[in-house]
Amino acid sequence: MISLIPISDANPTRRFPIVTIALIVMNVIAFFFLQPGFGTTPEATNYFAENVAVPCQLNDECPLRPVQYSENEEPVRIPERSLPSFIGAILFSTFLHGGFLHIAGNMLFLWVFGNNVEDFLGKIKFVIFYLAAGIVAGFAHVVTNLEGIPSLLPAVGASGAVAGVMGAYLVLFPRARVNTLVPLFFIWTVIQLSAWVVLGMWFVFQFFTSPDAGVAWMAHVGGFVFGAIAVFALGGRPHREARVLYEGIPRF
User: Fold this and answer.
1) What is d(CA 160, CA 196) in angstroms, rounded to the nearest whole number?
2) How far is CA 162 from the centre of its chain?
3) Are 146 and 55 in contact (CB under 8 A)?
4) How many whole angstroms separate alpha carbon 41 and alpha carbon 72?
5) How far apart (Å, rounded) are the C-alpha atoms in residues 9 and 167?
6) Which of 179, 176, 186 is nearest to 248 (CA)?
7) What is the pTM of this model?
8) E strand residue ranges, 112-239
9) For the segment 161-210, what is each residue's pLDDT rounded down to a tens digit?
10) Domains in the chain, start-ordered, CATH in brackets?
11) What whole-number distance in Å separates Cα of residue 188 and Cα of residue 183?
């Protein structure tokens, strides 16, 4: 599978992206000061199970006895949740991450694509849009993992909410130029690609995610589709291509 890593876009904004920056700061604070072990230790696994949404909570089929995810982890009891509590747990999970690469990737994508979507929607609408995308993405993951071991595994991360931002960006700025890090013959280089290429390939790649990768790819799909539909319903239509180019970066 080809890796595409967007690092910036040639798409200026009219207003300072205060909400996008605030969301990034909140995620970073939660990662370093709220969750234990930076999301990678047994303590972190237990913290996630006790504080975020777990699929089995939706159909009240979580085991009554403590759950032990592996031989090296302490057993933990998954709490029961009402529907409002479950939605709140989904929202909370969008500010937690399972490792440095996890949060770094999500925050990079949020920075590249979030500022322009915020610029279009405005601050208040963007906050509501982002949180709604996180909720929809969370339910997309949960309802497709209600059976077996996956129903006991909590999903954490801002990926679903960020995917909603990406879906909105695709609708609004399909021809915007995105400076993208790509591997060419074992050498990483930066080229400019249209947003529809970068985001379209990212979306398609989700359906080829390995079942053993531990990636909540249905949350990505659900958030992306929601973002595209929601921003279109809010009046979003394709904008003209931004004509801000970076010298020395090939265009494709």
Assistant:
1) 19
2) 4
3) yes
4) 10
5) 15
6) 179
7) 0.90
8) 177-184, 187-194
9) 999 999 999 999 999 999 999 988 778 899 999 999 999 999 999 999 88
10) 14-173+196-233 (1.20.1540.10)
11) 4
